[in-house]
Write a structure and sequence with these properties.
alpha/beta, 7-stranded parallel beta sheet, 13 helices
Length: about 475
């Protein structure tokens, strides 16, 4: 089948793409920015890429007429305060674009909506489902709750809380029930739903066999990790305090934390499990999913991570808009050093950030990350997805990878921390030297004052880092 895949650079989309091609389908991927789409070479024979921004109809290219089915995986709850309006607009534009194709089925991954008092996030998902159901095709809506897997936002939040806090004073919504499901089961259900006529025009809940409270999920995580944890719930935490609690303790952004808190007060339990019988699937238990997830993490087999989505930071434009580092009106700190072993130096550069750190004056980087968190930035807690591999669009602490060309030895990062301006950090090889350049384009007087305030620390941070990288 010829399948249209939206959200191909997202957490679910990246994994579903590999499964669809493994099953012999030809996939047409819709991406907003081709520069940050890096599919494996092995799948590119059965792949077509369209650069489409569904929020900008005038810039939308034509979708092939011979599309058989489509996956609708676009969500924007952490990107903008008005995401409800944006999501409806995207759904409308999507329907307009595919109405003249031969498409027979659209599969939409939504959230479980089995209560009348829905959160803003879940109400938006329901509104999108209603909009998509107006199309001239069969709509299959699959509603999931918490998804557990390496790199998923839900798993990373659970991991941050349990690994960091031996004792937790938590809001009362931790007693809310949910029905988690593993990412492998989600991908299986999505792929097996393709062309399944029993699911045409159906809205079905998907979940694992366990119905647990969020508190039970945290405690079972601790049990799997052999950690002793104590959790006490209190009724006094307001939604805002709860959001700040998640934001400061975990790697999530404040916007995402706010959306999650509002959703976590709503019970998300499957009403039936008919889909398991229809597709002959038996989802794994919560603890099985956790164990499998840790196996993937230990083997560095994290296919996708929510942290690499652009919505996890501040960069919402095309990466190519920032690829050419400006010079006019900018402050520059450029340093160079002779290198003795080019390959070793490249390996060090490609391991920068995350667990490896920044090689010198790590405490200053941590302090800068803490200050960034205080002012509502991403801080250092996003880390990185893989310990020694980088691709365009990846997150590295409070940086975004704009270019990662290891063959040529050039890495270009763009700062996503809160700044009175824009900042780039570049590493490249010139002959036998490693050249390290920090560029800052200030905004107004505050930007210039900021540069002069932090400049004295550059000699410590950047000079020390350069020596460690090049030695």
């Amino acid at each position: 089948m010829k399948v249209l895949l939206t959200g191909a650079t997202g957490y679910i989309g990246k994994r579903l793409l590999l499964e669809l091609i493994r099953k012999g389908h030809h996939v047409v991927c819709c991406v907003r920015d081709k520069n940050r789409f890096n599919p494996p070479e092995a799948v590119q024979e059965n792949l077509q890429v369209l650069e489409i921004d569904f929020l900008n109809p005038s810039a939308i290219s034509t979708i092939p007429n011979n599309i058989d089915a489509a996956y609708y995986l676009m969500h924007s709850m952490s990107a903008d305060a008005n995401y409800e309006e944006l999501e409806l607009k995207v759904a409308s534009n999507f329907m307009r674009l595919i109405e003249n194709t031969g498409i027979k089925q659209v599969i939409y991954l939504s959230g479980i909506v089995n209560e009348s008092g829905l959160s803003k996030h879940l109400s938006s998902r329901k509104a999108v489902e209603n909009k998509l159901s107006e199309g001239k095709y069969y709509l299959t809506t699959l509603r999931a709750g918490i998804i557990i897997g390496s790199g998923s936002a839900s798993f990373e939040i659970i991991r941050d809380l349990v690994e960091k806090l031996p004792v937790m004073i938590t809001p009362k919504w931790l007693n809310t029930k949910c029905q988690p499901i593993g990412i492998k089961d989600v991908i299986d259900i999505l792929s097996k739903s393709l062309g399944e006529d029993k699911l045409y025009g159906q809205s079905l809940d998907i979940g694992g066999p366990d119905v647990l409270s969020y508190k039970q999920m945290l405690l079972q995580y601790a049990q799997v990790r052999r950690l002793k944890r104590y959790i006490f719930t209190v009724p006094v935490m307001t939604p805002r305090l709860s959001s700040y609690w998640l934001y400061f303790v975990t790697s999530t952004s404040y916007k995402l934390a706010t959306a999650l808190v509002s959703s976590m007060k709503v019970e998300v339990v499957c009403r039936d499990n008919r889909i398991n019988q229809i597709l002959s699937i038996q989802p794994k238990s919560y603890q099985e999913c956790l164990r499998k997830t840790f196996m993937k993490i230990e083997d560095h087999e994290i296919v996708s991570s929510w942290k690499d989505a652009l919505t996890s930071g501040v960069l919402t434009h095309h990466l190519s808009d920032f690829m050419n580092v400006p010079s006019f009106g900018c402050f520059t700190d450029q340093r160079s050093s002779l290198i003795s072993n080019r390959e070793n130096t490249k390996d060090r550069i490609w391991q920068i950030g995350g667990e490896t750190g920044w090689y010198h004056a790590t405490w200053l980087w941590q302090l800068r990350g803490f200050i960034d968190k205080i002012f509502g930035g991403v801080g250092l807690r996003r880390g990185r997805t893989h310990p020694d591999q980088l691709a365009t669009g990846d997150a590295v602490d409070f940086w975004r990878v704009l270019l990662a060309d290891k063959n040529k030895g050039r890495l270009l990062l763009f700062a996503e921390m809160k700044l009175p301006g824009e900042a780039w950090l570049e590493f490249k090889f010139v002959g036998d030297e490693l050249v390290q350049t920090a560029t800052f384009r200030p905004k107004g007087i505050w930007g210039r004052l900021y540069w002069y305030m932090v400049y004295p620390f550059h000699g410590v941070v950047f000079n020390g880092m350069l020596k460690k990288l090049s030695k």
